[in-house]
Structure formats: C-alpha cells, structure tokens
Amino acid sequence: MLTARHYLIRISPLLVLFSLGCQRPSSEVQATNKELLREVYAAIDRQDFDRLGELISEDVVLHYIGIPEPLGRDALFELIREFYAAFPDYTHAIEEMVAEGNRVAVRLTFDATHRGEFEGIAATGKRVSYAGMHIGTIKNGVIEEWWGLEDNLGLMTQLGMQLAPAEPET
Amino acid sequence: MTTQEQNKAMVQRILSEGDARGAGILDEVCTPDYKMYFPSNAKSIGLEEHRVLWQSFIAGFPDLEHTIHASIAEGDYVSTRETLRGTHKGEFQGIPPTGETIEFSAICLWRFVDGKLAEYWADADIVGLFQQLGMELKPAE
Fold first, then answer.
1. Which of B123, B130, B135 to mutate to test the interface with A (most CBs of A within 10 A)?
2. What percentage of residues in chain B have a pLDDT greater than 90?
3. 3-state secondary structure chain A
4. Is the pTM of this model over 0.80?
5. ipTM score of the complex?
6. Which of A30, A98, A132 sits opposite B123 (nearest CB)?
7. CA B8 from chain center: how many Å?
8. Helix (H) or strand (E) holding B32
C-alpha cells in the first residue's frame, strides 16, 4: 500500500511540469522574449534568412525610420539584404533590453564598413558606428510588430553628407 | 503602485508638464548627476545642457507636444515610443519660422533611481524633422 508520503513523491515531478506549463512566471516570458530578440539580431548579422523566417512572423508589421508605410516580412528581408550589400560586416551590439508584457525594447549600437553603394552614396570604405532603439512585440514565439528608430543623421554624416536647404523643385 | 508603475507615471508627468510649462521640469525630477544621451550612443550631457536643448525645441515649436504610444517598464528602466508634434513658429537651429506643423517619432529609454530620473537616452527621426523644415541631405562641402 502506498503511504501518503510515497504518493506525494510520485506525483511531485508531474506537478512541477504542470505548473511550468500552465503558469510560467511572467519574468520567464520576458526572459524568453529577450532571448528571441538576441537570436534575431545574431541571425541578421549571419544573413540567416531561414532562421529569421522562424523568428519573425510572416505577418510582421515593421515601422522603420524614414519609410512612411509599414513594411511586411519580404520587404524587411529586402531591406536587410540592401544594408548588407552596402555594409557586409554590419553588426548589431545590444546595449540594453527592457521587457514587459509581450514587448521588448532594445538599445543598440551598429558598427559597419561602407563597402557598397548606399542611398546613392558610392562606397567610401569608411568605418561607421551609430545608435538606435527598437521595440518588438512578440506573440506565439515570433515577432509580430517591430518599431525601429536609428540615428539616421549620425550615419549619413559619417558617410560625408550634411543637412542643407533643399533645392526648389524645378 | 509598483516601482515600474511609478516610473511610467513619472515619464508621463515629465513630458506633459514639460509641454505645458517648459524644460524647467527637469530641475524638479532629475538626480544631481543626471546624464542625457542624444543620440543614444553620444557622449552624455548634464541637466543644464539638456534643459537648454529642450528649451531650444520649445522656442522653435512653442506648442510642442509629446504623445506616448507605448511604455515598457522593467527594473529601474522605462522605454517609451513617442510622437513629437509642433508648429514651427520660432527660429530653430538657424532656420527661420516656416509655420509648418511638423511631426516626428522618437524611442527613449529612462533610468530612475529612487523615483528620480538618473539617465535618459533618446533616438529620434532627426532627418525627418529637418526635411519637414525644408532641409535635405547633401554631400558635405
């Protein structure tokens, strides 16, 4: 006959599994979401579009600085390809991450060498370093929505551009 | 109220009071050794310099208004996604008033210590702002 003590010992591992499955502490969700973002930036730097396809929803909505209309996943992948054509050694360094609910905010530094044409500027060979902040919303283990604001003036200044009065349209 | 809720409420207070009565709000809410980074990888500036910078925006855009679209808090940090909107009625960065209503986005990170703002990082669509004021990027002379 099983005593109450034996019974408890038998079921306790199951109870642990059950509680993990049903009631993941919220801090664990945020840790998982941060890890997802870390994987995404590493996959971008590797140009691993197969992995990115697993980490980013096919219905993702990207709001990216300087582009008025939101982008979908194909347009996002195209944007990444264009960046890496111009900056083949482009890297994302994560400086800070803040997570709450299903969102993660990330402060980043980008480093790269300008080896190909970018925004009409022929390769300069210059080493650039600039900053940005992103916010990702994660649902069902993939990024559903993504906002990106980056120091576009800093990047363009390092590529030899400056702000000046626009020419009147002719 | 959790610390994170208090910090979020503090961000809302700083922006709405700043919009209503100017950058002097910083003197009331920042730690004495406050540091501001704009863009977020820049060398930091202090309280006095941040007040002057914010006040220069208010001089150019007297009706400047911050709208918070999202705020995310964890530990001592709050991150916000904001829109800034205003009418260009005063000189701004050497550009005479155009009367244009401008709007641009920012994502910011705020760090609090015992309810006081200790550090603040900001990235904003500065090229977008200047384009709305009639400027464009050109090769430097």
1. B123
2. 99
3. CCCHHHHHHHHHHHHHHHHHHHCCCHHHHHHHHHHHHHHHHHHHHHCCHHHHHHHEEEEEEEEECCCCCCECHHHHHHHHHHHHHHCCCCEEEEEEEEEECCEEEEEEEEEEECCCCECCECCCCCEEEEEEEEEEEEECCEEEEEEEEECHHHHHHHCCEEEEECCCCC
4. yes
5. 0.96
6. A132
7. 15
8. strand B30-37
